[in-house]
Write a structure and sequence with these properties.
By secondary structure, this protein is α+β, with helices and mostly antiparallel strands. It contains 13 helices and nine strands. The chain has a five-stranded antiparallel β-sheet with strand order 2-1-9-8-7, with helices on both faces. The chain has a two-stranded antiparallel sheet with strand order 3-4. It is globular. The chain binds glutamine (GLN).
Length: 304
């Protein structure tokens, strides 16, 4: 398969859509990002890789961080985690409050904000230095010691995280947060602020694609069974209220973030990360979604 040619064909086909949508601006620092960028990095397990555009430019991973915090929290609590967070798709926006109220403070899944705020609480309760632990975990997964938090993006989000604060207070009211709301929100926003490139993300996600070679770091064990479950949740919940559409059009487990990044994987075969900041109304990258849809169409490789 000529993957490089396929990436180039994909890019040509999606170019007409390059001005559609706009970057996230509810986090003031993200509004400053140049929206007209596109990058993709394909990592075939076992060695070869292919790339195009701004694949090496770092961007805000935002909700993609939820996959990393889930891996850590699941390793800490095991199946007890599911007493505090569900594993059903929400069908609602990533920052919706409604369902959380109906369901008495138990978030539908770990990949909506409410769920990831509980994950941050688990990390705070169980790790001596959660911020340091988290960034070291991500650096090890990606094999890149230069990955950093963006204090600027974290502060920017914290300065106006009224909706996430409401979610956190509702969780606290229902007894689903052990720590102070301010501390949990701080860690949550720090984790969202991590900056990585498509190349870093494609590398980091190989741990979730290579289930036959369990990954382990400082007590976090991505066993075959955990990787299988994390992939199942990516498949059903990775794109908020667009998870069904992503499964339908792309057909791979994946995770998106409002920084415009999307990572997807084909178990035992490859990982692919795309980035383009302009988003659709559901907070997913327009060029990124189109690129992945075309990629799985042109390669005719599907997990289904
Ligand atoms: N930090 C963002 C928020 O909480 C993450 C959302 C996202 O990427 N979907 O709103």
């Amino acid at each position: 398969m000529n993957y490089q040619q396929i990436l180039e064909d994909v890019y040509q086909e999606i170019k007409p859509f390059e001005k559609d949508g706009k970057q996230a601006d509810y986090i003031p620092a993200l509004a400053q990002v140049d929206p007209d960028q596109f990058g993709v990095y394909l990592n075939i397990l076992g060695g070869e890789h292919y790339s195009l555009g701004a694949y090496d430019t770092k961007f805000s991973i935002q909700s993609i961080s939820k996959v990393f915090s889930l891996a850590i929290a699941l390793s800490i609590l095991g199946k007890d985690l599911w007493t505090r967070i569900g594993k059903e798709p929400s069908g609602s926006a990533f920052n919706s409050l409604v369902q959380l109220e109906y369901e008495s403070g138990k978030p539908r899944n770990p990949f909506i904000n409410a769920g990831a705020i509980v994950l941050a609480d688990v990390l705070l309760s169980n790790l001596e230095n959660p911020e340091e632990f988290f960034i070291n975990f991500v650096r090890t997964l990606a094999g890149n010691p230069d990955i950093q938090y963006s204090q600027e993006v974290a502060d920017s989000e914290l300065s106006c995280s009224y909706l996430n604060a409401s979610i956190a207070y509702l969780l606290k009211h229902h007894g689903n947060l052990e720590n102070d709301v301010a501390d949990v929100l701080h860690l949550y926003c720090m984790m969202c602020s991590v900056e990585m490139s498509c190349k870093d993300l494609a590398q980091a996600f190989t741990a979730f694609a290579r289930s036959n070679e369990p990954f382990s770091h400082a007590g976090v064990n991505l066993t075959v069974s955990r990787v299988k479950r994390i992939n199942a949740i990516m498949q059903t919940c990775g794109f908020y209220d667009e998870a069904g559409e992503f499964a339908f059009l792309v057909g791979l487990p994946g995770k998106s973030g409002v920084g415009g990044g999307i990572v997807a994987l084909y178990p035992s075969k490859y990982t692919i990360a795309v980035w383009s900041p302009r988003l659709n109304g559901r907070g997913n990258s327009i060029m990124g979604l189109k690129a992945l849809e075309l990629f799985t169409t042109l390669t005719t490789e599907s997990i289904f």
